[in-house]
Each structure stands twice: as C-alpha cells, then as structure tokens.
Amino acid sequence: MRFRDRGPREPRVTVATGIRMVTIWHLFGVAAGVTSMLLASRTGDDELPVAIKLLMQVFSIVVTVAHVVAAYGTFRGLRRARTVSLVTNYLLFVVAGSALLHQVGAFTAIGKFGTGLNKAFLPFLVIVVGLLWVLVAGQLLSNRPHATGPTALRKAGWGLAAIAAVWFVIAADPSGMLSTLADRITQPLTIGTAIVTVGAGMATRFMWQRRVAVHFGTSAAEEQTLSGLAFLSPNLIGFMFFFAGPLLFSLVVSFFEWKTTGTGRTFVGIDNYVRAMSLDISSTDVANAGNEVLKPGYQVLMHLDWFGQNWVLGARDVEFWISLRNIFIFLVLAVPASVLPALVLSSILASRLPGMKVFRAIYFVPSVAGVIGVAIIWGQLFQSTVGWINYVILRAGEILPFVDPPAEGHPWVSSNSTALLSMVVVFAWMNFGFNTVLYLAGHQSIPKELYEAADIDGANVWQVFRRITVPQLRNTTFYVLITTSILALQLFDIVWILSTPEPGGPNNATTTPVLALYEEAFQGNNQGYASALAWVLFLIIFGFTFAQFRQQKDGATSGGVS
Amino acid sequence: MSVRRKGPKATAIRVATYVLLLAVAVVVIFPFLVAVTTSFKRNTDIFTYPPSLVPRAAVTVPAEQVGLEGDPVPVYTFPARDDRSGQWALVDNDASLAEFRPLDDLERIIVLAVTDGDKTGATITIDGEAEDVFLIDDGGTQIEAYRSRLTSGGLFVSVGNPDDTVLDLVNFATPVQEFGPRFENFTEVLAERDPETNGKGVGRSLTNTVLVTMLVVLGQIITSILGGYAFARVQFKGRSTLFMMYLGSVMIPFVVLIIPLFQLMLQVNWRDNLVALIIPFAFSAYGTFLMRQFFLGIPAEIEEAALLDGASRSTILWKVMVPLARPAIATLATFGFLYAWNSFFWPLVIINSGNPDNAVLSLTLSTLGGRSSTDTNLVFAGAILAMTPPILVFLFAQRYFVENSASSGLK
Amino acid sequence: MAAVTFTNISKRYKDGPKAVDGLDLEIADGEFMVLVGPSGCGKSTALRMIAGLEEISDGTLAIGERIVNEVPPGDRDIAMVFQNYALYPHMTVRQNIGFALEVARVKKDEINRRVEHAAEMLGLTEYLERLPKALSGGQRQRVAMGRAIVRSPQVFLMDEPLSNLDAKLRVQMRSDIIQLQARLGTTMVYVTHDQVEAMTMGHRVAVMRKGILQQVAPPQELYLRPANLFVAAFIGSPSMNLITADLTVNGDEVFVDFGGHRLRISPKALDRYPGLRERNGTEVIFGLRPEHFAMEDDIEVGDDQILTVRCQLAEAMGAEVHVHAVIDVPPPMVDGAPTAAEDDPEALVAGTKIIARVDGIHTVAMGQDVRLAVKTHLTHFFDPASGAPLR
Fold it and tell me: Is C110 on the interface with A (CB under 8 A)?
C-alpha cells in the first residue's frame, strides 16, 4: 500500500527531453532579448518616454545575458543552472505577462469595469448574498459535523450565486470590452509578448518540478530559498514597484526642476532644498517693513521685536514656512487633545464595570467613519449662524455665568484666529477613540497586583493614576504620541474640506505642509520642488520620531504624557 | 480600580464615572445624529435658526379646501399678530401689498391690497414728504391713513373659513410644520445628476468605491498571506534584511510617494482610471507583518506533521494555516476595507475632477460638499451613505479588530 | 518496510556545539529501536533528521537503500507522532487521519476505507467526526497514531509520545504501541527520556549522551553488560550504586577497600571483568545495583561479603524496602560531572549515597545499623578516568 508518487498522473515529458527543450527555449530567449534591445534602441525618443526606453534596454541586456548563462548551464547540466534558469524564466514570465496584460488593456479594463458593475449592481449584490449564504451555512456545518441539512443549504447558496452571475453578465454588457480585447489581441507585438510569456511560464513550471531538482542535485536549503522567494514574489514585486522604486525616484526628482505634466526638466542639485529652507533676517528701523529690507527673492514672513529693535524675518518660500508654523501649532494643540482624554478614558474603561465595551465601541466609531463625511458634518456644526456649536454656546451663556457668547455667531472656520483650532477639534474628535483603544491594550499588561498593593497602602484614585497607571503606560504613551504626531504632521484632508474660502483657509491660516506640497506639484506644476518639500517633511517627521525614541530610551523622569 | 467598595462615596464615584463616560459618548454621537437628521431634511429646513434635530415638512391642505385647484397649499399661523388666530393657507405669495398707517396712530401698520383704500384727496406731510390720505377699512370702521410702503407679500385664506382672506407680509407668518423626513434625499443623491448643475450623484461613485474596495481587500489578503507565510516559516537567505525593509516602509509617510506614483501612473496610462486606486494598494506591508506574526504563533509541529504527510508548502498554507488564521485575516480585511473605502488623498491626485465616471465616494462627497454647494441635505444624505458601510463593518468585525490592532501595533 | 542507517551523522549548530556527533547506527527493517538519554543528548535531533525536519551537517542517512539527506520530508515515506500530537485543530478526526491520503490524491472511498480501518485498530471509530478539542489526551494521541498508521509508511517515528499522559494511561499506551508495532511489523524509531519505557519497549535501545552514541544493544545487554559508566548509571531504577574504591587483586582473591569498608569480590566477577587482573593496587569504580543487595540472613554469603552501613532513610515500598545509606568516599565523577545522578543536586553532598533493595518483610529504622549481604559476583568495574569497563 504505497503512494509515494503523488497522484495517478504520469509525467508526459521525461527529464532529459524537458531539459533539452528548456535549453532551446533559452537560446530563443537570447534571440528575443537581442531583438528587444534592437527594438528599444530603434524607437525614437518621442514614441516612448526616455525612462521606459532606458529600462527596456537595460532589461533586454540582462535578459539576454541571463539566457546565455542559463542555456550553457542547462546544456551542460551544471548544478546551479536550474536556479539560474528558474529565476530568469520566472522573472521573464512576470515581466512579459505584465506587459501582455498592459498591451491587451487588462489593467485599464479593471477600471472600466466600474461601468459594468454600476449597471449590474443589483445582481452583484445577489451574488454577494449567495456567497455569504454559503459561508454562513459552512460555519453551521463546521460546528455541527453530524448534521446533513446544511449541505443542501450550501448548494442553494451556490445556485443562487450562479443564477445571479448569469444575470450579472447580461446586465453588465461586456460586448464593448470584448471587441476591444479582440482587436488588441491580434496585434503582432501582443502576440510576440504572449509567446514569450507562455514560453517562460512553461519553462518555469517544468524546471520547478521535484524530479528536475533531483536531477540537478538541488539541496534542500536551496529549494527552501527558492520556495520562500516564490511565495514572497507577488508581495515583493509590488513592494519594489510601488514603493521602493517610487521612493528612490522621489529622491531623484527632488534634485531637478521638473514639470509635473508636459516636458521640461533641469538638474538643479540641492537648489530645491535650499530654496525651501532659506531664511533671512535683517533689522530695520521701521515697524512694519516690507520685502525691500530683505535679500532679493525673499518675502516677509513675520515681524519681530527683540531688545527694542525691529527685525524682519523673511523666507524665499513664505507659504512653506507659514505651513510649518501652522503645523507645529496644530501639533502642539492636537496631540495632547487626542492623547490625554484617551489616557483618562482608557483607565476608566479598563475597569470591569458593566457597559465598558459599549463605550469603547462608541468612542472608536469616529476613527472609522471616513474623514470626508466627518469634515462635512463638522463644517455644518461650525457654521456661524445656524451651527450647533454656536447655538450651544449661546444657550450655555444663558445658564452659566462665566460663558459670554458674542452677539453674533462666531465664524469658526473662516476666522484667522480660530480656523486652525477648528481643525484641532475635528482631529481630536476623530482620533481620541483609537488612542483609547491603544491605551486599553496597554492596560492589559499592567499587573493587577500593583493596584492591589496600592489599595492596601491606601492610595486614592488620583495617586494610583499618577504613580502607577501613568508610569506603567509609558511604552504605550510613547507609541500613541508618535503615531498621533505622525498623523498630525501630515494633516491634509480635514483642511481640504473644511477651510474656506479655499483650502488653506483664510489667509493661509490653515495651510499645512502637505497642502503646500500638493499645490506646488499639481497646481504649480513643479514636481521637483514639491518632492523636495516632501522629503523635508519626511525628515521633520523622522527627526521628531527619533527624538521621541531617544527620550523614551533615556527613561525620561516624568514618564508621562508631556 | 479593582476592588469593589460599597458605601455612598463609592456609589457617588461610580455615578460620576458613568456621567463622564456618557458625556463623552454624547460628544461622539451628537455629530452623527446631526448628520442623520440633516440627511432627512428639506434643504430649506437646514439653515433655520435655532437649529433643530428634527426634519420637518410643511403642513399643507388640499387646494380644494380653500377653493383652488392644483397642488396642496402650505399652512401658516401669525403669532405676531394678536388679532389673528388659527391657521391660514398661503395661496399667493406674490401679491401686491400696501402698508397703511392710520393718521391717529402712526406706529400701527395695516396691510391691505394695493387697490384697497380710497383717496380722500387730502394730503399729509410725513417726514417732509407729502402723502395722500386714504380712507381704509379697519375692522369695520373707516379711518384715515396714509400709504407708507408698497411691497409684495402673501394672500392667506383661513383654513377654517375659506371666505376669510387676509393679506400680509410673509415674514410675519410662521409655517406650520410637522415631522417630515424626506426619504427622497437618498434616492436623489444616488441618481446620476446633470453635470451642468453643480453636482454629481453618488450612485456611480458608490459602485466604483465598492469595486475598488473589494479588489484592494482581496489583493491585500492574498499577497499578505503569501508574504507573511514566507517570512514566518520559510528559511531563505536575506529574509531578515528584507523584513527589516518592510518594517521600515511603514514609517515612510505616503506623501513622499504621491509624486513618483503619479508619474508612474502617467507612464502606464493608468491616470484617471480606477485601476490606479487598486493595484498599487493591493500590497500591504502592514498586512504582511500581521500575517507573519500570526503564522509565527501557530505551533511548528502542525506544519511538520503536514510536511511529513506529503503536503507541499502551498497545500500547507491554504489547507492548514489559513483556516487557522481567520481572526488575523478578518482584521486584515477590516483594515483594508476601511483604508480603501475612506482614502481621499490619492484619488484626489489621480482621478480627474471633471470625470464623474471614475470618481470614488470620498471625491464625490468633497465636491458635493464643497464650498459652493447648495443642496446641503443631499450632501448629507450622501455623507450618510458613505459613512454607514465602514461603521457597520467595524461594528461587525469589532471583536477581531480592536484586540488585534492594539496588540499587534505595540510590537 | 525498510532499514534506517546512520553513517557518521553529525549536526552542528552555527555557534559550534554539536547536537549529534558522529552517529553510526543501523536500525534493522522491522526493528523497534528506542533512542534514550537525558535531555539535550541529541536523540530528538537524530529522530528529526530521519524525518527530514533537521538538516544533516555531515554523514549520510539512508532509508532502505536510498540516501535521503536531501530528500524532503514528504518524499521519505515515513510517518511521525509528535509529543504534542500536532493534530490539525480545524479538521475532524477523520480529516486528520485522512489528510495525507487526500494530499496524495487517493480516491475518496479508498480514503474512507483506510481511515475507518485505522480508526478501528485504535478504537477511535465513534470519534471520527469530532474535532481535536473535543478529545481527551489519550484519544488525541491515538488520532496522531492513526494518522501515522494509515499511510503504511516504511518507518514510524515517535517523539516522546507518552510524556504528556498521566502514569496509568502511559502504561496502557505503552503496551498498545508495542502490540501495534508487532502487528504491523514496521520499523519503529522511538525517542524517550524515560529509561523504563526504553527498556520495556525496544528490541534494541540506543543510549545517547551529549550527541554521542554510548551503546546500542537489546535491553538485557544494556543491563548486564553496560558499555561504560554512563550507561551503567543511566539504566536501572533506582540507578546503580557507583563507589570509588582501591582494588587489590591477588590471583583469584579480589578485594575492594572504600571508606573504611572492605568487601571481597567473588571470583566470578573476574570472568566478566578480566581487566581487573591488571589493575591491582589502583583505584577503580565499582558498581552495585540496588538489587544486588539483600539482608544478611536472606542469602548465603561469606562474612567478608557483608557491608555494614547506617541507614539514613528507609523507604517501605511494600514488596521491598529501599535502604538509603552513605559511604564516606567522594562520589565518582566522569568528565568533570557526577555520573549516577547527573541532574540530582544532592549528588554534590559529601559522601557517596547508596541505595539497597531488600525484601519488604524487614523493618529498618532510620539511624539503625544494617548488615547488607552483597551479591558480589554481579559487580561491575570501571576505570575512574575514562569510565570504560575493565573487561
């Protein structure tokens, strides 16, 4: 009773034949690589963006060389050849496959699918219901294995989903897409790419087989490495392509003066950074001097009065510095507002009183509701004439003696002095619940015995809080402070929706660095400079985090929330 | 906060605690309450003072009741006019009116139709101007008055007595209202609207957002499971270095990437297409991390047993590890859902603002609710539609979500 | 059915220490081989190397005729029962047992047939649809065994499968496993730290220590002819008493002097330990198993074969009494560590502790002087420096 061979399938191709075929494929690959290199060199600069062309050339060279090595290796049966062949073919498969999908328009079709979904949303919902049905029936099934009823239920669910699927296809009407697809498939370039994809794929599949590994003598450790990288590959490719690559590119771009759309770029070195950070200070006799007392290119940032002398502080990029000022004010206000209540509330919620879970859930909801909706709501609340905030203040003024509401409702969002404050309120409202939950987790790791000992020592609530809870929560506080600060420093959405008359508020009162950056890139059409600003902001965030880290490591004395 | 004490002081503290918690809860819930009620109001009802939480509709009477034909007529009362009680239906709100002031009581105003009053031929000087003196009917008696103003106002018919009519300025009338939620807000905001008139409906963006969110969540789950398993269980060279890079990537703020990502989208012609919202975000370093932590917690013997049973790594992953990882996957799905559904910055960058076909909810809402919006009630209806799914998803997945986000975040 | 052959197998960890050092072991086809030793001796590592779960640094491992160093676990046609059972928590007993068959794409009715057959063999038929969490420890253990049996592998591996069970269940499972192996005739490699288990279950027992194989032999041989001091001390419960003494050999007259005592050793010992003749006047370690003692009147020995000691503790076990005493000689050390009680902190107390097993009918009080008769023809002798037997 053996079953060492997996399954009854007999392999159709012997190892030797397969290897020969793969070697021939590699030679073909060499030819293809050379062809693609020639193709890339031949196309004019205007047909293909320079970056893509360069990429293609480099890629073609790499592919060609790899195929040469692999062909030689497989022909001679060298041990490492299998690894080289596998890696080459797999990467080629991925690249060619992606190119194929791109040429066929499969990617953009996903987006266009939105139309189909819109037309066929109802059948789509029915499919979802059907699948949920199956899932639920499956759950019931797993909990009561003896029951046989749920199988019929599951089948019903599948049936429902199937019918809805047919309905969906009819309603979505893919005929347009299909005809475009047919057109594109028949292009010669597409066919060529398809051949490469299929060939590379088949070669990979063959070389991956166990018996080929045995033939080439691949060790178990090597096999593990290959296997691990294979599992990681979709993730890793995405990581490289959509994160690491762009990150590097962002750095490169920041050294250029580069138009966002359209052509035009010049290398300017660190000029962008210099421009962003340049400050100038000069003394004047006049109280409210203008730009003329500063160096050329600088504008007035603010007026200072030190030691009886008038000073003017200027910057080349006034808006950026204003945004920095704004964001720091915001940080100083918003972070404590988001963290302190969380600390206090979490201490209450950590007790075993009934109903704590309900409150916890309620407090968390603002974090998940979505910033746009929330900002719109708060915009209405802050409305000067009919907004609830002013109304409540008015009413409070009638009851409480120390509240003195102004005669007319205060324009919270459109007033220079309170615009930023409004943002602080919204931010704190949105984030305190999440922080409360983080603190709650921190509470779990405070040993109960500490509280019991304090109880025996006769400490009151405040003393317990100050001497035990807060110090024990040091690590959590550290984490919460950092995450909230990072969020605060990147403020954008709330400002975009809430501030009037345009984003950035009355007279730049609520301009934030991210906003300044966005405007520079997409309205000022200067992505080089904008990238530099982004990196400056990143360095600020990083420096901030790092400083927090050091403070944490040194075991700061207060260990509290300051 | 452990031992339960009895006694009045403890009870007082307990009560105070709950009061505090409730107060905070009210602060949290109130804006949502405002949003929900506003989403049911008529547009005209929103900018009333004092603000109210109740959506109201005007009470009307059928036209025939007041001797007319056509649509029902709104009803008013006159609280400022002591001598006029009961309900009055406004049948014409553009009636030409004249204000008359009696000569013996210049402070008093009597509103009549323009054609009312007979000129006596006499004049009187008021503020240096010569005004005609009229004879008007004042509750039965004829008095002398001059005409102080011509304006337009409303013709009211008494609901109880259709023969009784009065002319007055509409400002002096208070509309009679009843609880009247307007469900059409929601159907209207879902419909495609004419791009010429200020707005887009959220219907299309809703389905777009569903599509994007679904695919992003699916992509993140699959890539994170694969990647997390590789990091957790497969020994391969360079594993720790790569992992460090993944960890570090969480620290990089997204804003640094938008510009190069934008260029990338331009190059592959994904600009202004939903796919730009999907594929770059089908990978999640955080999700990979989450799955890795979870897989590390599964005893190694189970996998070794499966290896000995002859299962390939792939089979082990999907048939053994994944069924055990349901809580982590649920957390990941929830996080992914919230992230994709609520994302705003990147869609703003990559989707053309003039293109309603490719917008997602957050974009449409921001335009609708923008500074130049007029249909606030529809905007709020749209906001409610946009906020309800994430809140529901959160409440539903809460048990996994809250514990996991807190605990894994602290590692 | 296949033999398992270790040829000069070593496993080295990155920072130096060897978990397994130069292991040469041949396990015959159909044999029940037990690997036993204290923790850290390398027995589990060796087992896992057979399974393919540990990488082999040096040497070759063969299953049957095939060298399997680089063969992945799933292809070795072996089955393993883990100490913690390692059942798939989300699958029923039936699915757990049948998983390997499912992976191999065996037809469904065939799977069911084989699963039910294995379940019947193990008494699990009524639990087939249950989840592991609804089973007791013993039942889970049997499911783990069922999972192994159903595959009809060439070799069974068991990694301390009984250590998580309570004593009574352990005894019963032991006999179940023995009978199962006899019935199936499959090669079995069994790891345990419990030498009683090892002695009762194995056809042959391999004693390991610090990665090195000390002796592999049938249990009786280990008991009667230990290959070195370690094995002598390890096998037997309570362990063999080891005492450092001065040896005097004069023709057929052999005497040992220790701590103020003198014992004449029967000449029969010379037949078993001929090397004694060359060791006249030197220090030796001689070993007496607790069962080699008796009360003075219970057996016939010469006066010079009686040991008088003061009883420190008397454990009445019912059928026998364990008499604890102390000999005024420092306990023997090999490799810088005390031998007989390597994990016993009390071994560092001055003086050598000995235990004698005497018939339970005697009453021995603490502090009482006892005259023990010694069956000196069964004595063992070792070289103090190397621990080698003086054969």
Answer: no
